[in-house]
Design a protein that fits this description.
The complex is a heterodimer of chains A (about 650) and B (about 250).
Chain A lengths: L11 H29 L11 H13 L8 H35 L6 H32 L12 H30 L8 H10 L4 H25 L7 H10 L28 H9 L5 H5 L1 H6 L4 H12 L14 H6 L5 H5 L6 H14 L5 H13 L22 E2 L7 E3 L3 H5 L4 H13 L4 E3 L9 H6 L2 H17 L4 E4 L2 H9 L11 E3 H10 L12 E4 L13 H9 L3 E2 L30 H10 L6 E4 L2 H13 L7 E4 H8 L1
Parallel strand pairs in A: 1-3, 2-3, 2-4, 4-5, 6-7, 6-8, 8-9
Helix pairs in contact in A: 1-7, 2-8, 3-4, 4-5, 5-6, 5-7, 8-9, 9-12, 18-26, 22-23, 24-25
Chain B lengths: L1 E6 L1 E3 L21 E3 L1 H17 L2 E7 L4 H11 L3 E6 L7 H15 L3 E5 L10 H9 L3 E11 L2 E7 L5 E7 L2 E5 L11 H10 L2 E5 L30 H15 L3
Parallel strand pairs in B: 1-4, 1-6, 4-5, 5-11, 6-10, 7-10
Antiparallel strand pairs in B: 2-3, 7-8, 8-9
Helix pairs in contact in B: 2-5, 3-4
The chains are: A mainly alpha (about 650), B alpha/beta (about 250).
C-alpha cells in the first residue's frame, strides 16, 4: 500500500537537527512579527472592530479569491498561481507534519496512506507546477517586460528585496521537486506515476545510480529545509511580510462610507506631523504595500506631472517607520508638492489589492501643512474667502443667488416657505459666470417638471467637502455648522444638488455633525427617479452619440454610476463608454481643492488626457458631465487640446432640457 | 523689541457701497468691514521681527464688527497682547483715531510702531504720520522690509519706478508698512479657536473723540462721468491758434 515514508534517507541526527532548527525558526518568526506589531501599536487608536462576518467575507473574496488582484489579467494570474500554489504546498507540509509528528507518533496511524496519499502526492506535484508558472511570470514581468510601475523605487534597497523573494521561492520549489525526484529515483515505488513531475525528474537521475542519488538527495533535502526555514525567518523582515500584513489590512479595512473622512487629529497640532500621529491602521497600510504600482498607474497626479506617486508615498512612509536616524516626516520624507498634487480622486484606493487608503493619509499630512499655514497663495486666498464670504470666489454672499434674477416664477426661498426639494446649489454653479446659464437651465427644467423646490439664497455656504480634503478641518466645521443651522430651520423633504462634491459631504459627513438625517440626491438620481415614476417624459429622441464622464465624488465615492447613464439613454442618446469608466473613471484634476491651487508644470493635464480619450471614440459628438466643476475643466481642455470642433462638452441637464 | 501695531477696519469693497441720505457718509446698513490690507501686512511684519529677533507684539484696534476675530487671528500668528478701544468709532476720522491710539501707545512705550501705510478710506491723510506727530516720533512710510540693529532699524522704503532706499531710523519710530517681507500667513481655524480659549482682549474705553485738524466732508458721491474731451485737429499752427483762442475764451489768457 502506498504510504508516506517521512524522513526517508534522513539520518537521525539530521531529523533532530531539523526539529531544533524548526523551533529556532518559530522563535525568530514570532519575534519578527512582534517587532512589527509593536511598531503599529505606537500609532494612535482607531476603531476598526465590528462587522465580523463581512470582514471574514472580505478575507474569503479578496484573499482566498484574490478578487482585486485578478482585476488585472497578467499580474492577477501570476499572483493567484503563486498564492494558491504556495498555500497548498504549505498546507501539504503541515499535513505531513501532523501525519508524522502527531497521529503517527502518538496514535500510531498515518493519514497519508493508500489512496489519500497518492491523491495528496498528485495535488502537491501539480500545485508546485502552478508556483513554477507564477514565478516564471513574475520573473518575466520584473526583469524582462519591466513595466514602469515596477521601476524607480524611492528606496533603493527594495529592488534586492524583490529579487530575494523570487529567488527564495524558486529555490524552495525546485529543491522540493529535486528531493522528491531523487527519492523516487532510489525507491522506485509502484505509485511513482502519481507524482508526474517528480517521476519525470527521477528518470533524469536513474543513470547516476544509488549511492550518488542517495547522497544528492540528502544534500538537496538539507538545502531545501534550510531555505524553507530561512524564508520563514525572513518573512517578517522582507516583502514576504505582506503574506501577513495584507490579509490583516483587508480584515481591518474601513467599512464606513468612502465619502466620510475621519476627523482630524488635534493632539499636538492638527493632522500628522510625526509618524506616531498616524493611527495604527495607517501604519498597517504602509506595511501592507507590496509596491505593485497599480495605484501609480491610475493616479491622475502621477500621469500629469509625476510629482506624486501613491506607490512611492507608501514605500517612503513604510521606510520612515524603521529609519535608524529618523528624518523629518515633512520636508524630508514627504514633500509638500507631493501632498498638494493629490486630487483625492480615490482611484488609487479603488485599485489597491491590499486595500490601502492612501487618500486619508495624504489628507492627514495636508492637515499639518494647513496647521503650519504652509500653502500656495491661491489656496490661501481661496480659504480666506471661504472663511469670510462662504465661497471661494471672494464675492459677496449676497450675490450668491444673482443667477436666479429674471427667472419666472422666482425661485422659492426655502428659508421662508416649505418646499419638497431643497436645492443646495454650490459655489461653482452659483458664482462662476460661465456656469450660471446651466444653473438657470436646471432651474427651468425643475420648473417645467413642476417640482416644488427652493434654495437657501445668501444663507448657503460652500459645503466644505474640498475644504476638508485640503486639510482645513476647522474651516470645514465652521462651514458645515453654518449650513446645518440654516438647513435645520428649513422645512423640506429631500436635499438635492448638481455638485457631486457638495453631494458627498452633505450625504456622508453632515449627519455625523449631529444634524438629523434627510435624503440627499444628486440631480442625476432625481431625474432618474422622475423618469422611472413617469413624471419626466421626453418628447424628443435626441439621437446623439455621447460619452459620459464619471465624477469621482459621485462614482467612486458614492457608487452612483447607473442613474446618469439611464438619464442619458432616456433622452434618446447613444452612450459610448470611454476605456476608463465607472470605477476606473479618470479624474478631471480639480478635486480635493486642486481647483483652488496654483497649477505646476505638467506634461498633460488630467482633463486633457480625458478629452483625448473621448476623442478617440468613433463618432462621439458630446462629452456629457454631471458636475459643475467638470464643465469648466473640460470646456477648457477641449480648447487647449484643439478639439472644439470635434467634441462638445454638455451638462446632463442640457440633454434633458433639449429632449423635454 | 517692543512693537505696537495699531490697525483699523475699512469698508469691504466686495460689497456694493451706497451713500447715506445725509450725502456725506457711506450708508452703514449694508456696510461690511474688513481689515485694512496693509495693516494685515504690518501685523505680519511685526510677527516676523519677533520670530527673528525676539520681542513682544501688541496689536491695537478700534471696536468694529469682526475685530475680535482679527485680534485672535493675530494672537494665533504670534501677537502677545491684544488691545481693543471700545466706544463709538462710527464718525472717527484718522485724526481722531490717531489721537486715540497715541494715548494708549504712549503708555505702552514701544520701540517700534508699525501700521499700514495707507487705507482706502483715508480721507484726512494716512494714520502713520498723524500718529508720529502726536507721539513726537520720526516716521518713514512705504516700507517693505525692516532690519533691526540695536537702538535703530534700517527700513527699506519703496519709491515709484522700482527704486528702494535704505533709511536708518532711530527708535522709537513709526513705520508705514507697504508690504511685509512675506505675504500675511494663513492661520488654521482650529488654531484661532484654540487661542480664543487662552488669549485675552484688553478693552480700553475711549474718551471723547477729537477730530480736530481733520477734514469736513461736504459731499460724498459716486464718480460722475465727466464731459467728453474735444479733440483739436489740423496742422500744428491751426491747433495752436485754436488753443490760444480757447484759453482766451476761458479767461486764462
Amino acid at each position: 500500500m502506498p504510504i508516506r515514508e517521512t524522513f526517508w534517507n534522513i539520518p537521525h541526527w539530521a531529523e533532530i537537527a531539523q526539529y531544533i532548527a524548526a523551533l529556532l525558526t518559530a522563535i525568530l518568526f514570532i519575534a519578527g512579527i512582534t517587532r512589527r506589531v509593536l511598531r503599529w501599536r505606537r500609532g494612535r487608536p482607531e476603531k476598526r472592530s465590528g462587522h465580523f462576518w463581512s470582514r471574514i467575507g472580505s478575507l474569503v473574496t479578496q484573499v482566498l479569491g484574490q478578487k482585486r488582484t485578478l482585476d488585472e489579467k497578467f499580474p492577477g494570474i501570476m499572483h493567484f498561481s503563486i498564492f494558491w500554489g504556495m498555500l497548498v504546498l504549505a498546507a501539504g507540509t503541515a499535513l505531513a507534519t501532523i501525519d508524522w509528528d502527531v497521529t503517527h507518533l502518538f496514535f500510531g496511524f498515518q493519514i497519508l496512506k493508500g489512496s489519500v496519499y497518492v491523491v495528496f502526492e498528485l495535488m502537491l506535484d501539480l500545485l508546485g507546477l502552478l508556483v513554477v508558472l507564477g514565478l516564471g511570470m513574475a520573473i518575466y514581468r520584473r526583469y524582462i517586460s519591466r513595466p514602469a510601475r515596477l521601476q524607480n523605487f524611492p528606496v533603493k534597497k527594495l529592488a534586492g528585496d524583490d529579487t530575494y523573494v523570487l529567488v527564495m521561492l524558486a529555490f524552495i520549489t525546485l529543491s522540493g521537486y529535486l528531493t522528491e525526484g531523487l527519492r523516487l529515483a532510489v525507491m522506485r515505488p509502484d505509485w511513482a506515476a502519481w507524482s508526474p513531475i517528480g517521476n519525470a525528474i527521477a528518470s533524469l537521475f536513474l543513470s547516476l545510480g544509488d549511492p550518488t542519488n542517495q547522497t544528492l538527495h540528502l544534500v538537496i533535502w538539507g538545502l531545501h529545509i534550510v531555505t524553507a526555514f530561512g524564508v520563514l525567518i525572513s518573512l517578517p523582515f522582507t516583502k514576504l511580510f505582506h503574506i501577513f500584513s495584507v490579509p490583516l489590512n483587508i480584515y481591518f479595512r474601513s467599512l464606513e462610507p468612502a465619502g466620510a473622512l475621519r476627523a482630524a487629529n488635534m493632539d499636538g497640532g492638527m493632522g500628522v506631523k510625526e509618524w506616531t500621529q498616524f493611527t495604527w491602521k495607517q501604519l498597517l497600510d504602509f506595511e501592507a504595500c507590496t509596491r505593485c504600482g497599480r495605484c501609480q498607474d491610475v493616479c491622475p497626479a502621477y500621469a500629469s506631472a509625476q510629482v506624486l506617486s501613491p506607490r512611492n508615498m507608501m514605500v517612503k512612509l513604510d521606510d520612515h517607520l524603521w529609519e535608524k536616524k529618523p528624518r523629518a516626516l515633512h520636508g524630508e520624507v514627504v514633500l509638500a508638492d507631493e501632498l498638494w498634487a493629490c486630487t483625492t480622486c480615490r482611484a488609487c484606493v479603488q485599485v489597491c489589492p491590499a486595500f490601502i487608503d492612501h487618500v486619508t493619509t495624504f489628507v492627514d499630512l495636508r492637515r499639518h501643512l494647513v496647521d503650519q499655514g504652509k500653502m500656495d497663495q491661491m489656496l490661501q486666498d481661496a480659504l480666506s474667502n471661504l472663511g469670510r464670504y462662504g465661497n471661494s470666489f471672494g464675492q459677496s454672499d449676497r450675490m450668491r443667488a444673482k443667477w436666479t434674477m429674471g427667472l419666472q416664477p422666482p425661485v422659492k426661498d426655502a428659508r421662508r416657505e416649505e418646499v419638497e426639494y431643497l436645492w443646495f446649489v454650490g459655489d461653482y454653479a452659483s458664482y462662476n459666470a460661465t456656469l450660471t446659464d446651466v444653473t438657470r437651465k436646471t432651474a427651468e427644467v425643475f420648473q417645467k417638471l413642476g417640482l416644488n423646490f427652493g434654495i437657501l439664497y445668501e444663507s448657503e455656504r460652500n459645503s466644505g467637502n474640498d475644504v476638508r480634503r485640503v486639510g482645513e478641518e476647522g474651516l470645514f466645521e465652521m462651514l458645515a455648522d453654518k449650513n446645518s443651522q440654516v438647513l435645520s430651520r428649513c422645512k423640506f423633504q429631500t436635499l438635492i444638488t448638481t455638485d457631486p462634491h457638495s453631494y458627498n459631504t452633505l450625504k456622508n459627513e453632515y449627519p455625523a455633525n449631529g444634524n438629523g438625517r434627510y435624503p440627499v440626491l444628486h440631480y442625476s438620481e432625481l431625474l432618474d427617479q422622475l423618469i422611472a415614476a413617469g413624471k419626466l417624459k421626453f418628447s424628443k429622441k435626441l439621437g446623439y452619440k455621447v460619452t459620459y464622464h464619471d465624477p469621482c465624488y459621485l462614482g467612486r465615492y458614492n457608487g452612483v454610476y447607473d442613474a446618469p447613464r439611464r438619464v442619458i439613454e432616456a433622452t434618446g442618446c447613444e452612450l459610448v463608454e470611454m476605456p476608463r469608466h465607472r470605477e476606473r473613471g479618470f479624474c478631471c484634476g480639480a478635486g480635493g481643492g486642486r481647483i483652488w491651487m496654483e497649477e505646476k508644470e505638467v506634461k498633460e493635464r488630467p482633463s486633457e488626457s480625458r478629452i483625448r480619450e473621448a476623442v478617440g471614440l468613433e463618432g462621439v459628438q458630446m462629452f456629457v458631465v454631471a458636475c459643475p466643476k467638470d464643465l469648466t475643466m473640460f470646456r477648457d481642455a477641449v480648447k487647449t487640446t484643439g478639439n472644439e470642433q470635434r467634441l462638445e462638452v454638455k451638462d446632463l441637464i442640457d440633454l434633458v432640457a433639449e429632449a423635454l | 523689541m517692543k512693537i505696537a501695531v495699531p490697525i483699523k477696519f475699512v469698508p469691504d469693497l466686495v460689497e456694493e457701497l451706497t451713500i447715506d441720505p445725509s450725502g456725506t457718509a457711506l450708508d452703514t446698513t449694508w456696510l461690511r468691514l474688513i481689515i485694512n490690507e496693509l495693516d494685515d501686512h504690518a501685523v505680519e511684519q511685526a510677527v516676523l521681527l519677533k520670530e527673528r529677533g525676539g520681542g513682544d507684539v501688541t496689536v491695537l484696534a478700534a471696536e468694529a464688527d469682526g475685530v475680535d476675530d482679527f485680534l485672535f487671528t493675530a494672537a494665533a500668528k504670534g501677537a502677545d497682547r491684544l488691545i481693543k478701544l471700545t466706544g463709538d468709532f462710527s464718525t472717527a476720522d484718522n485724526h481722531a483715531l490717531g489721537r486715540a491710539f497715541a494715548d494708549v501707545i504712549k503708555e505702552l512705550q514701544p520701540d517700534l510702531i508699525l501700521t499700514g501705510v495707507q487705507a482706502h478710506n483715508d480721507l484726512d491723510g494716512s494714520i502713520g504720520p498723524l500718529l508720529a506727530e502726536y507721539l513726537g516720533l520720526p516716521y518713514v512710510g512705504y516700507v517693505a522690509g525692516i532690519t533691526p540693529g540695536g537702538d535703530k532699524v534700517i527700513a527699506r522704503k519703496e519709491y515709484a519706478g522700482g527704486l528702494v532706499a535704505e533709511v536708518e531710523v532711530k527708535l522709537p519710530a513709526v513705520l508705514g508698512i507697504q508690504a511685509a517681507e512675506q505675504p500675511p500667513r494663513y492661520v488654521a481655524y482650529s488654531k484661532i479657536r484654540q487661542i480664543m480659549g487662552t488669549a485675552k482682549i484688553e478693552e480700553r474705553p475711549l474718551g471723547a473723540l477729537e477730530s480736530g485738524g481733520g477734514v469736513m466732508i461736504e459731499r460724498m458721491f459716486q464718480p460722475e462721468a465727466a464731459e467728453r474731451a474735444t479733440m483739436l485737429e489740423g496742422s500744428p499752427e491751426d491747433v495752436a491758434d485754436k488753443l490760444v483762442g480757447l484759453f482766451k475764451e476761458l479767461g486764462t489768457l
